[in-house]
Amino acid sequence: MFEIQAESMFSAAHHLLNYNGECENQHGHNWKVIVSVRGSQLDKSNILVDFKILKKELNKVLDLIDHKDINELEYFKGQSPSSEMIAKFIYEKLLEKFDNMYSVAVYETPTSCAKYYGKDEE
Predict the structure, then answer these.
(1) Active-site residue among 14, 29, 57, 108?
(2) How far apart, in whole angstroms, are the C-alpha atoms of residue 113 and residue 108?
(3) pLDDT (tens digit, 9 = 90+) per residue, 17-71?
(4) Is 7 a catalytic residue?
(5) Which of 15, 23, 92, 113 is catalytic?
(6) pLDDT value for 122
(7) Is 27 known to be catalytic?
(8) Which domain holds residue 61?
(9) Is 29 tagged catalytic?
């Protein structure tokens, strides 16, 4: 099994719903995002997915949320846009391009990360 990762960043504001604490107030983060794809089949160049293509598609998705109030985006209407849900959003968008998506990690600080896998790990 092979796995590759690409990393990028975005900045955005959000506030958590149904939360009792400071994060219920609007605030912003400079998020770091790491996406992973896995597979056992390489192409004729022995590449799983071209890093340039993976990063280009990741940045297209991040452009949808970069410098936005995430609470105002249709996908997040009525729900708390936690790092967990942001990771799920990015995963689902990238799954449209890469059927071998494995995970998306979203860091809202250098030491705090939420990860979404899309399917149960067994």
Answers:
(1) 108
(2) 6
(3) 999 989 888 999 999 999 999 999 999 999 999 999 999 999 999 999 999 999 9
(4) no
(5) 23
(6) 47
(7) no
(8) 2-116
(9) no
